[in-house]
Amino acid sequence: MTLLEFPIRRYQFTLVAFLCLIAIGWFAFSNIPREEDPFFKSPAFSVTSIYPGADPKDIERTIVKPIEDRLAALDNVYKMETTIVDGVGVIFIQFGVSSDADKKYDEVTREVSVVRDTLNNSAMSVAVRKWSPAYVNIVQFALVSDTAPYSAMEDAARNLTDALKAVGGVRTAERM
Question: Which has more pLDDT, 151 or 175?
Answer without folding.
Answer: 151
